[in-house]
Structure formats: structure tokens, C-alpha cells
Amino acid sequence: MKKYLSMIMVVIMAISLMAGCGTKTEDGQSDDINNEDVNNEEAKAEDGQKMVIGMSCINLSDAGLVLIKNGADKAAEDYNCELVWKACEGNLDTQIDQIRGFIQQGVDAIWIDSCDVAGVVDVVNEATDAGIIVMTAGSKVEGNENYNLVYPDYDDAYFAATVIGERYKDQSGTIGLIVGNAGNLVSENRQQGYTDAMKNYPNLKLVTGMGMWDANTSMTVAEDLIRSNPDMLHMHIIADGMSYGAYEGIKNAGGDVTISSNDGDTDALAHLENGEYLLDNVVGNERLGYWGIVIGHRLYENETMVRDQFLPTYKVMGDEMIEFIEDNNLTEINSTAYELVTIEEARKIVSADAYTIEFNESFVPTK
Amino acid sequence: MERFKNVLGMRIDFNRMINIGILVALIIAAALANRSFLSPGNLLGIIEQNAAKGVMALGITFVLITGGIDLSMENGLTMIAVVSSIFHVGWGNHAVTLVVLCILTGMALGAVNGFLITKLKLLPFVATLGMMSIAQGITHWASEGEIMFLSSEGVTFIGRGKVFGIISFQIVVFVIMAALAAVILYRTRLGTTIYALGSNEDAAAYSGINTARQKFKVYVLNGAFVGVAALLTVSRVGQISPNLGSGSMMDAIAAAVIGGTSTLGGRGSISGTILGVLIIGVLVNALTFMNVPVNAQSAIKGLVILLAIVADALLVSRRNMKLKEASA
Known about the structure:
The complex is a heterodimer of chains A (about 375) and B (about 325). Helices cover about 45% and strands about 20% of the residues of chain A. With about 375 residues, chain A is an alpha/beta fold. Chain A folds into two domains: about 30-150 and about 285-310, 3-Layer(aba) Sandwich (Rossmann fold), CATH 3.40.50.2300; about 155-280 and about 315-360, Response regulator (Rossmann fold, 3-Layer(aba) Sandwich), CATH 3.40.50.2300. Chain A has a six-stranded parallel β-sheet with strand order 2-1-3-4-5-11, sandwiched between helices. In chain A, strands 7-6-8-9 form a four-stranded parallel β-sheet, sandwiched between helices. In chain A, strand 6, helix 7 and strand 7 form a beta-alpha-beta unit. Chain A is globular and about 60 Å long. Chain B has one domain (about 50-285, about 295-300): Orthogonal Bundle (ABC transporter involved in vitamin B12 uptake, BtuC). Chain B is built from 15 helices and four strands. Chain B has helices spanning about 1-5, 15-35, 40-50, 50-65, 75-90, 95-120, 125-145, 155-160, 170-185, 190-200, 200-205, 210-235, 250-260, 270-290, 295-325, and strands spanning about 150, 160-165, 165-170, 240. In chain B, the strands form two sheets. A two-stranded antiparallel sheet of chain B has the order 1-4. Chain B has a two-stranded antiparallel sheet with strand order 2-3. In chain B, strand 2 and strand 3 (about 165-170) form a beta hairpin. In chain B, helix 4 (about 50-65) crosses helix 10 (about 190-200). Mean pLDDT of chain B is about 90; it is low at about 1-10. Chains A and B meet through helix 1, helix 3, strand 7, helix 8 and helix 9 of A and helix 3, helix 5, helix 6, helix 7 and helix 12 of B.
């Protein structure tokens, strides 16, 4: 009897595999996660005209990175490219080996979401020396000839903090900030921008917690920050994925604070629409992925552009906040101009219909 | 000292006193830094936040006492949450579905671990390390990296509801699971066998215990506890994501070890594990209340946990030496 019970348990485990069946159909692009057996024939283009791009990611389990992949796959389809995906699971040595693998395979370009910007410099230079176009996404890698695909994390966070500082400049209290983790460049840039701006408002005390890019941890951190700071006025979370957990934590702890976030994901836009969030920053992860491949294709076509390519981002909020920002002349801060959009406009910006047009033949990269 | 050790007729061993001392010291330090720490909302909040980890710690206590280990708990928790939630949403959003699936999937995970260890004779470290990767793969495959929100009333109550408007349902579940764990460990034949397996497996076999079958049961039991932990985690945050269980395994094992459970087997207790969970929970919460710089929090947390474990290890070593001298 117990033997049968154990067999039933194993069957239940096998059935759990079915949970992944019949959901999304995969697109026609090569989608080879962590496959160490990609051979030379797969990496080479059949007709010599198709651009082959090696895509080296930190992981493909994070929701944001999955969206980036979706956008990149779409761009590859539109621009007749072949993408070879590999994920290093946060291990620098693995990433270096994967990049070297791409070099050996003779790909046309390599797109890198580096887990250590200093650690990949040497291998990036190896790739550019081999005549391969190298694009490093999300952070600046100080290689000799690579292109950095970045978005203004510091400036965007500075803007968000300044808006909140102005909003609460006549009050004293605490502002909460939930970041990703120490050592992550995106997290550190966003934290630095927010912290620097908050220094202009000594009436507001800034307290910071690490959400570890995880909604569950962010929920706990948000609860602790609310309970330890009863005078909290606002909480900023540097990524939408964490913000959903933080939002639940704030409710659970009985907090009555305004909330802002970053990324402009669909669910965050819904929170904005319901008045639960005050402000967000539209990057659009699918849009980001699409843009990266477009830049790569332009470089493959020998277009000249500067090494640092910036993805335009937009500040999204409700009408009341747009009015507040315009009335207080906050659309330009420290010579940096910020474009404000409504929630509806933000939804359009991050949609495939819009970003395929935004980055079409008439798109002008950063010159 | 004897009177102190026999508080309210209960014998408190010296190891437990050390743990209580650490807990009290943390509470005092945090309260001095910020009075809001002692608010009922915060104190209950600490237990609520650590209810899922606590349930995981209770489950791993059984495994550790037998001298085993389960490295698949963290990815297993995420897998259980993701798989169960997908079926829960697809089958009508009933909370009961989620509850049953979490427990059953957890038990299935435990059964696979148990099968690998007892039938295929793999070392627990190796077997559960492999299952850790498999669970991660199933999670990625099933979730495709997407976030899914759970919004049914039943699930919301499990995650954030309050009994009599005061006590979080998460705390209620933790207390029930702790009571169940205590009954299993102290009042059942399986509990006696768990200690026997950890103390001397050969002697247990010679005394007629089917050690393979009992070990298998322990891993299935642990799997059930991981399933309950998955249920508490996913319902509390109200969404599934591929890194839902992040960090929970190390905290669960640390809690058990701080509470006096030996990783070599043969020693451990439910009350000790509960104290370990409280120490870790209070520590993390206290670091926020004391405004410790966020970049230093992980290192300080690790240091305090290490000190607690070292103190416990030194006391055990000293006690064993005294016993040897006494019997010599």
C-alpha cells in the first residue's frame, strides 16, 4: 500500500510538469535557454545575410527580463535577425565563458546584460577585437569599442525624488525607498539619484530598505519601514515587480502613504489609474528589448552613432500630478528635460504597435 | 540557578536560555532605538512575516534530526506555489484547490527526495541538490517568467486575513503547524524513530526499525510542511513570481540550527526551532528599527546568526566533555 502511495506521489510530481503546457506558443526565433550545446551551424546564418546576435543575460526567470526577451524576439523577427539566448544565472565566470563561446561561433553581434560591469571588460574587448559588435545593456561597461545601451536611471530617480520633495516640502516626515540589492548597478544608480535629490529637502528623512528584486521581501521591508516610521509620507520602489509586494505590505501595515515606482509595467499603470500609485517611469521592458536589437541592426548596417545610446523614458502620472509638475516647473531639472505622459499615452508607448513604429526606419539613435 | 532553570515547573536547558537571552537583548536594543518596535502591530507583524519561514523551519527540523538535509526547499517552495497557483486559477479560483494542491505537491516533492535517498541510496545533499535544479526548471517552464496575481477571497484571507480581527491567519496556521510538529516529534512512534535515526542509524536498524521507510516518511512530511509554507507565502504576497521563495531556505535552516538542532543528527526540538525563527525575525525587523544602513544589514544578520550558532556549539561541546568526565 505504501509503495503505491509513493508511486502516486511521483505521478503527482510528473503531473505538475503539465502546468507549463499549452500556455504561450513560442515564436519562431531560437530560444535556447542555458543550452551549452549550441553548435556552430546553429549560430551561423544559412544565407549569410541574416544577422546573428548572441544574447547573454543574467537570467531569464525575472519577469522584467522575460519581457525584454519578448521585445527582442519580436525585433529579431522584424529585422531578420537570429538570436541565440544564454543565461548565466548571475555567475560571472559562466557569462564570460558564454561570451567566449559566441566569439568562437563567429556571431555578428553580442548583447550583454552583464552581472559584473568590471568583470566583463576583458571579454568585451576580446569580442570587439574579433570584429564583433558588442552592446552592453542596462549599465556602462568601460570597454574599448562596445556600445552601451542605457537609460537614465540616475536622472529618472532624481526626478521622482524631486517631485515628491516638492510635493511634501511644507511638511516634515519620512520618505521610504526600497531598492534592489547592493552591487546591482541599476539599483545603485536609482538609489543614488533618489538619495541625492532628497538631500535638497532636509525636512524629509529618507529611510532605505532592500527588496532584493522580490515582491515577498519587498512586502516585508515595506511593512517594517511603515511600522518603524509612523510619520512616513511616501514610499518609492525602484522597480514595478517589487512595488506590487510593497503595496500589499503598506496596506497590511495600515500605512497611508503615497507610492511611486519605476518601469511602467501594465499592472503598475493600473495602480496609477486607480489612484494607488502617484507616479511611475515608463521604460517598457518589451520596448527596451526591441530597441536593443534595432540598435544592433543599425550598427550591423554600418550606421555611425555614439558609444552611449540612451533609451527615451517618460514620466507617467495622473492629470493632477501632471498639473502639479507643470505648475512647479519641474519638467526640467538641472538642465535635464523630462517628458510627461498620461496613463493612456503610457499604455500606448509600451505597446508593440507603438514601439515598432517608434523604432522604425525613421528612428534616430543618440548621435 | 536551579530555581531559574525550573521556571514555572518547566526545565529550561542552558542552550535555550542563551537563545532567550539573545532574543531579549535584540528586543531591548531595538526598543531603545525606536519605541515603535514594541507596538503590538509590529510584534505580531514579526510573527506574521515569519510564519511561512517558521513552517519551513519546523519541517527541516525533522530532516536535520535524522542527519539529513533538504536543499530543494527554497526552489521547491517556489515550484509548489507556481504550479498550484496555475491550477488554482485555471480550475475556478477556489482557495481549497490551492490549499490541497500546495500540500499534495509538497508531499510529492518530498516523496521524490525520499525515493532518491532511500531507494537509489543517493546522499541527501546530492539528491536534494538535483531536485533543487529540477524544481527551478519546472518553475521557469510553468511560469515563463510572468507574474500572476491571485485575487480570490479565500486566498486573500489566508494571506492577509485576521481571526477575530486581531490575529493574522498566518500566525494561526503557524501555531497549528508548530503544535502538529510537536505532537509528531514527541508523541508518535515516528518522532521517536526520527531521533533514533539521527542518533545511531545502525542501532535503529538492528532494533528492527525499517530505516528506509521511516526516512522516506520524514522527507514526505518535510515536503508537506514546505507545501504549507508555499501556501502561506503565495497567499500573503498575492502573486506568483519565479523568485518567490528567495532566501527562505537559509533562514529556515539557520533557525533550526540556532534552536539547537544538530546538522549531524540526533538532536533538535520544536521549541528550539520556534525560538530560532523568532530570533531571526526579530533580528531582521530590529535592523530596520535601528536604522542600520541597508548595505550592512546582510552582514550583521549573518554575524548574529553565526554568534548564536557558535555559542550553542560551545555549550554542547562543554556539556559533552562534562558528561565524559562524569562517566570516566
